[in-house]
Amino acid sequence: FVSFPCENERPGSMMVSPSKMFAWGANTHGQLGTGDTTDRFEPEYIEGVNVSVVTGGGRHSVHTDVTYFRLGFKYASFPGVDVYTCGSNSAGQVGRENFPLHFQKIGMESKYPVASVICGWDFTFVLQSDGGLFAFGSNAHNQLLCNDIRRISKPIRASLPTVRCVAAGLRHVVAISASNEVLLWGSNHRGQLGTTASKTIKNGPVCLKLDTSQGCPVTCSSGAYHSVILTDAGFVFIIGELRYFGEDGNVIIRSSSGDLPAYMFTPDSFGGRPIVQTASGWSNVLALTALFVHFSSHFYTELWFDYFAADTGVLFTWGRSDLGQLGRPHLSDCHSGSPRIPEFDPFPGRVSFGDDDGSVTRIVDIRAGAEHSLAVDSDGDLWTWGWNEHGMCGIPKNAISESVSLDCSGGIKHCPCVIQPSRVNLLPLSTCQGLRPATTRLIGAGYGHSFAYVV
């Protein structure tokens, strides 16, 4: 990031950024880092937190630190080596013995900057810039690749080759190695790993072999029981449980445990443009397109550099939709003044961000919780949609329809949802020149909570 410091700051000095992190949503285990266990329906400022990556699991949260250095009249941020956690520690997922209600630093024997942090329901991974992977938390389904150990409360290095991307579902994990292999391990109770061989894979990861004509895998995301693989040619593959994506699959992928059905979506599914980023809710997928992007498969940070160089982005969603997860409701008959939404849509559809007036909203970053999503546009505005029972969308109760009628499984239920993208109101920042609007630069999502880092 870059920003403009006050005039009395000296070039070449370490500095405290005027940036702020906000948190909101479910907080019953202190996962927001606010020091208490009360849900937040609107964004709340978290004191003294600077982050380069932030994310969350079912009831815990993790972020990495960032260092700011003055460069002339601006300053730049550099990823740090420290990791901070808070929230539930029922399975060791915060990397210490206590249950912190504020973000606290954990012990990491690492000299490399942290590239990413990844959370499953109750386990955590820390990916370093050298491709090394540290793990801690629940290992009840071999999520941490440590046979016969049910929990690990301090970070240990995972027994894996160098990896460049990792994603975690409820109890399974998908990774892409530096040699372009797709690796899956952990629970297979719902076919998450694409094999019927065993409910839990204990003999090392399942290795997928994609057809090279569709490109090399560059990044991945994971839902509760499915995984998404994105190639450098813009092809999207979904493997695992496919019930909300059409059930049977349209291609067969070879793996080390046998052939498995999958869904493949070509760039034609997204208006002819390749996908540059995906995110997965529990049972839905988000895919972001761009017009002019050069992919690099050498290391995932290069992919992010190229992604942010894109000058436009269009968001597509598909999968389960009964809680407004897709952000593009096809409203059917209305009952009692409330809209109804179909249970799922297996086909990608474009999401509208209030641009019915002819303007174009360009999306530059996306995240997904269990049943809610976040997106940032090129102006730095933050948008959210989906399930909002615990305030995870950051939209006040009086600003949305609190009783949305949802047509699911043959019946009607009423849930607090934000059924289409809505802007989140973030408090302005105080600078030496006075107050100015907050610009969102980084977002993160836990299963039922959200984060935004603004400048």
Automatic annotation (TrEMBL):
PANTHER family: BTK-BINDING PROTEIN-RELATED (PTHR22872)
One Pfam family recorded for the sequence: WD40_RLD
Protein's UniProt keywords contain Plastid: no
InterPro entries (UniProt xref): RCC1-like_dom (IPR058923), RCC1/BLIP-II (IPR009091), Reg_chr_condens (IPR000408), Signaling_Regulatory_Domain (IPR051625)
Name under which the protein is recorded: Secretion-regulating guanine nucleotide exchange factor
Keywords noted in UniProt: Repeat
Entry keyword annotation includes Repeat: yes
RCC1-like domain location: 82-398
Sequence ranges of the RCC repeats: 19-67, 81-130, 131-179, 180-233, 313-379, 380-455
